[in-house]
Design goal:
mainly alpha, Ferritin, two-stranded parallel sheet, 75% helix, disordered N terminus
Length: 327
Amino acid sequence: MLTRFLPGTRRSFNNLSEQEILALAISSEEDDMRIYQAYADGLRANYPDSARLFEAMAEEENGHRAQLIALHQQRFGDVIPLIRREHVRGYYDRKPDWLVRPLSIDKTREMAAQMEAQAERFYRVAATRTQDAETRKLLGDLAFAEARHSELATQLEEKFISNDVREKEDSAEKKQFLLTYIQPGLAGLMDGSISTLAPIFAAAFATGDTWNTFLIGLSASIGAGISMGFTEAAHDDGVLTGRGSPLKRGLASGIMTTVGGLGHALPYLIPDFKTATTVAIVVVFVELWAITWIQHRFMETPWGRAMFQVLLGGSLVLAAGILIGVA
């Protein structure tokens, strides 16, 4: 465990024996096999065809592991040294992306391709740094095996994932992204931008004090963000609706709510009331335009309807706040 935090305790690859290099290859194949199986398990519910792809890749890694073990038994016997990638300085690492649920299909494919490319590149570079013929041959064979893994992944993807399946999975991935991040984030941005308009501008025109207006806007924004975040996370655990992690949705909603309110509260840090109010009103219309764009871009709301809903609602709330403040 300490080798993860104390790089000086790691072995140099150049100091490894041929037996240790072979043992390292075996442990790496075992790790990658488990990672691919974890990918398959994480994708099976939403992306069954891609899950079959990673199951097949896990089987291939297991086959390569068996071949390497047989080679070790032939050359060095049955006792395999305990050496893993975290014990070797400069060896490629694996980030625990496979532990995150739900898995992103695009991210998973990207990480799988990166895994194979990392292993191949490392073995090829290592092969050029040794003068020992047997070690050089061993590293070259491992690099060739990893290159074949990449080709195999492409072949398996063509076998298991047709264009129709890919389009279906990409559509499901987009829908999941919308449900987990865009929808709660957009709701938060709308709530933070519009609901705080009235209290902030009412306070501004009632007091004419920029600092107190800023404090009111800050408290309203943070309070609304906390409320929206907890509400989003607590009212739906995502199991039945498929909307994803409540923590992620709560953070998206809470953060965007706070950002929406702070947008037109921050200008009141400017001491001059007229300047601060002018900047704040400009920011309000920028926020409303951003909400309209997000609705059109991600929620496919027609421009006309989005502009009517957002701009009309925001303008009415802004006017209400100003009228209350000057009353």
